[in-house]
Design brief:
Length: 156
């Protein structure tokens, strides 16, 4: 489960977001990427941003139909995850909270936008990406992510 989360879901979460954001809204990416960095690291990241942006675009192959391809892959992966949780399991890999749950919830938090992650709740997204996210908001996996954060994220 963890391998699939890492190699498929994680890659396509990033690719989908970058494909929507980097071409015309790259100013939205930097604050999220460097929000918790030390001031000197934010400064250095700002200087390196033009190169970093080009490397992300090249590495994730965000052009062409990348966004729709990644969206379709993610929807199939959501179906897979929902099959697991619909089978009566609260957790993905057994009866207790595990790395698989932490990984899935962390990767999908930008889409589920749990209250316990204010950076995602307040993140600005381009309209086309927001529309996709709104379409996913009713999915069982997004409700599961929010529940995992409610139950296991200590915000105190």
């Amino acid at each position: 489960i963890e391998r699939r989360l890492d190699k498929i879901i994680g890659v396509h979460v990033r690719r989908l977001v970058y494909a929507h954001v980097l071409p015309h809204h790259c100013y939205l990416v930097k604050p999220m990427l460097f929000a918790n960095s030390a001031p000197i690291h934010r400064f250095a990241a700002g200087l390196m941003w033009p190169l970093t942006k080009r490397l992300i675009i090249k590495g994730y192959k965000t052009g062409g139909n990348a966004a729709s391809e990644s969206r379709d892959i993610l929807e199939r992966e959501f179906d897979w995850l929902e099959d697991i949780i619909r089978s009566g399991q609260t957790y993905l890999a057994g009866r207790t909270f595990s790395r698989a749950d932490l990984t899935a919830a962390s990767l999908l938090a930008p889409f589920a936008r749990p209250d316990e992650m204010p950076i995602y709740r307040s993140a600005r997204m381009p309209r086309d990406l927001s529309t996709i996210m709104e379409g996913w908001s009713h999915r069982a996996i997004m409700h599961w992510v929010k529940e995992i954060y409610r139950e296991h994220r200590n915000c105190r």
